[in-house]
Design goal:
With 116 residues, this protein is mainly α. Helix content is 62%, strand content 5%. It has 4 helices and 2 strands, in the order αααββα. Strands 1-2 form a two-stranded antiparallel ribbon.
């Protein structure tokens, strides 16, 4: 796996899945004892006109993208989460070891933006 494949997999299996799961939860909350807040949100969502529901879905997609972008920016070292000045090194270990957030290569957050 290389950096491009990693970002594509994260977008698909984490980002796209989060969007789909969130919309599905709004459409049909699972379980018998759905929490009141979740039930109210679902009823509101299902009452929306198609265009308005599409706008809500777009907001969800934007929030998920921004979350992934922020996480990848942290892994790339361009967004700090501490005062120590350390950095993260993300390594994929398969048949070979590959540093996915190599500082000499294109950044993970830029790869994510290139997918959109």
């Amino acid at each position: 796996m290389n950096s491009q494949e990693f970002v594509e997999a994260i977008k698909r299996y984490v980002g796209d899945a989060a969007i789909e799961d969130t919309v599905a939860l709004l459409k049909n909350p699972p379980g018998r004892n759905v929490p009141r807040e979740q039930r109210v949100r679902s009823e509101w969502y299902k009452s929306l006109r198609a265009g308005d529901a599409d706008n809500v879905n777009g907001v969800i997609a934007t929030a998920v993208h921004q979350t992934l972008f922020g996480l990848l920016a942290v892994l790339d070292g361009v967004r700090s989460v501490d005062n120590e000045g350390g950095r993260f090194e993300l390594t994929y270990v398969g048949s070979t070891r590959v540093v996915l957030n190599d500082q000499q290569a294109i950044s993970l957050h830029d790869l994510l933006n290139a997918l959109n």
